[in-house]
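User: I'm curious what two different proteins look like when written out as structure tokens. Can you demonstrate?

Assistant: Sure. I'll show them one after the other, since each token string lines up with its own sequence. Here's the first protein:
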Amino acid sequence: MIDTHVHFWNFDPVRDSWINADMAVIQRDFLPADLQRADPEHKLEGCIAVQASQSEAENVFLLDLASKNKLIKGIVGWVDLCHPLLGEHLGYWKNFPLIKGWRHVLQAENEDFILAKSFIDGLRQLREHGYSYDLLCYHDQLPSMIRLVDLVPGQSFILDHCGKPNIKSGNMAAWADNISILAQNQNVCCKLSGLLTEADWQNWTEKQIFDCFDVVFNQFGLDRILFASDWPVLTLSRSYQQWIGLVKKYLEQFSTDEQHKILRDNAIRCYRLDLTTSA
């Protein structure tokens, strides 16, 4: 298995203020050794470390972790796509092939930012350098994501956390409709993650989660869905092993080869992973 969405951090209460009092259980350091302890059956072959801080110092931090931990097979870092010297920055980071793509916390931005010419131009430079781009958004921002991906044809996009459906409210129709539109763009893949923390953390039901899975699988198909966890944020609701068990239970309806696509093969293709190297 390859987990395409994990976070590592040395907890800083100022920098990491998004981890609020309701999330006290993750107000501590999380490093690769902690992920390995969360996976006692050693099901993971590797993971993608995704930025949790919006600075290029985050790239240095994750690259350093990867140099010491073979579990990290790729990095989704952060770079200012609107910077006038973006090309020079990307040229520098191109020296570190473990960085496979980039992400900005678009869920904290409005449509004026998301569809700004400077941001779109930055995405076009990513396309020229062969990087993927992770889309992190709330369900009500999906119309902006649809417009965004259409403005950068040929760019590889990966939707984080299934577009964060509002499971807790039960109002899923607009999310499902927008997922069906977004998935028509063949350059968009989707991570199977983040759903437990969009539901009632302690009282979600298997049916709620599997109903979301149904929408994602029906629209993206078996070649554009990637297993992911959003660990350690996941642990606000359930353990890492419980999430793996839930995903695998849903995947029982598919053949072994089809399950391998979701759990491993699609990650290798979408993130262009070289499993023979670690750093």
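Here's a second, unrelated protein for contrast:
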Amino acid sequence: MYRVIRAGELQPSPGGTIKFEGEPYGGEISFFHVNNDPGAGPVLHRHPYSETWIVRRGKARFVADGETLEACAGDILVVSANTPHKFTNIGEGKLELICIHASPSIIQEDLEA
């Protein structure tokens, strides 16, 4: 069995992020395809599974488990399950990330308002 999700089937949020959850398609992973403006990013949160980020374009400041680091195009970051984390676009242009969730559905607990 296979499924093709064509470009345009998954609509981006007003902030430019596309959300994909694998479960409805028989997939074992989910992801966000982020395309954020400078200064944008999620609040501190955590998931009950690991998350892997692939920075495709731009520059981001990540906070993970209380530590801060910067990443740019080509960098890959991984956080383990239940690790508080967030990121912010600190570049002058768009930040493009693929945020891979090791779960067929996205489960997120926000830790900031």
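A detail about the second structure: The beta strands are 18-21, 30-36, 45-46, 51-57, 59-64, 67-72, 76-79, 85-89, 95-101, 109-110.
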